[in-house]
Write a structure and sequence with these properties.
- By secondary structure, the chain is α+β, with helices and mostly antiparallel strands.
- It contains 2 helices and 4 strands.
- A 4-stranded antiparallel beta sheet has the order 2-1-4-3.
- Strand 3 and strand 4 form a beta hairpin.
- It is globular and about 50 Å long.
- It starts with 7 loop residues before the first strand and ends in a 9-residue tail after the last helix.
- The mean pLDDT is 89.
- InterPro entries: DUF4288.
- It comes from Sorangium atrum.
- This is DUF4288 domain-containing protein.
C-alpha cells in the first residue's frame, strides 16, 4: 500500500463468513482487524474493502468439503487512536451497551457460535 506523509493509519474491522455447498458444513465467522493508510475515512474504507476482497479464499478442508471464505461486511473504519505505534499504544476502541450480548457471542468469554 502506498504511503505518504498525508496518509493516516486507519483500523478496519472486517467480518468474513465461511460457507460450503456441502449441507453438513457448519458456517463460521471471523473478525479481522487490518491497518490501512489513507488520506481520509472514505479512502480508508475503500482500501479496506479492496484488501479484504484480495483475502477471500476457497479450499478443501480435511473432510474434503469445499470451503469458501468471503467478506461479509466492513464493520468499521476508524483512525488509529495513537500517533506513536509503540508498546502499549491504543489503536482501536468501540463502545457497546450490552455486555450480555457481547458475552453471548464472544467465544473467549464462553459464548458460542450456535
Amino acid at each position: 500500500m502506498e504511503s505518504s506523509p498525508n496518509n493516516d493509519l486507519y483500523v478496519a474491522v472486517l467480518l468474513y463468513e465461511s460457507w460450503s455447498p456441502d449441507p453438513s458444513y457448519t458456517p463460521m465467522c471471523e473478525e479481522c482487524f487490518a491497518l490501512v493508510r489513507a488520506e481520509g475515512e472514505e479512502q480508508a474504507r475503500a482500501r479496506a474493502e479492496q484488501h479484504s476482497r484480495a483475502h477471500e479464499t476457497c479450499f478443501s478442508n480435511v473432510l474434503g468439503q469445499e470451503i469458501h471464505w468471503k467478506l461479509k461486511h466492513v464493520v468499521d473504519v476508524s483512525r488509529v487512536l495513537s500517533d506513536a505505534l509503540d508498546d502499549g499504544a491504543d489503536i482501536y476502541a468501540r463502545h457497546f451497551k450490552s455486555y450480555e450480548a457481547y458475552h453471548a457471542f464472544e467465544l473467549l468469554l464462553g459464548g458460542s457460535v450456535d
